[in-house]
Amino acid sequence: MIKYISRVSIQASILLNVLFGGKLNQTVSATQHQRKRDGKINFAWLIDSIFFWDTEHCMEAWIKWKIIHNAINSHTKVYRNAY
After folding, report:
1. Which of 4, 30, 53, 76 would disulfide-bridge 61, Cβ 3.0–4.6 Å?
2. Are 74 and 83 in contact, with CB atoms under 8 Å apart?
3. Sign of CA dihedral 42, 58, 28, 50
């Protein structure tokens, strides 16, 4: 049940992020870390304080997104070059 709630929460975060103009398959946390990296106004500090047991929550979410995003792009390029 906890795994289910975790998955639903992640998907809700992705939906909320996309509704506010964020990138596809990126959570609100990952977007806020990217905004922090870019020197833009962000709420990474707030999200990190909410997830106080998970130090650098937003940074970890961003790293996970980058890994997944790069893997998808690499696979897509290989697939396109096959035809």
Report:
1. 30
2. no
3. negative
Every domain of the chain and the residues it spans: 2-81
CA 75 to chain centre: 19
pLDDT digits (tens, 9 = 90+) for 25-52: 899 999 999 999 999 999 999 999 999 9
| Per-residue tokens: 35 | 């905004």
Cα–Cα distance, 83 to 80 (Å, whole number)? 6
* Signed CA dihedral, 17, 63, 50, 40: sign only: negative
Instruction: Specify the pTM.
Output: 0.80
User: CA 42 to CA 18: how far, in whole Å?
Assistant: 16
Q: CA 25, 47, 3, 1 torsion: positive or negative?
A: negative
> Could you tell me the CA-to-CA distances from 52 to 28, 31, 56 in Å, in that order?
16, 18, 9
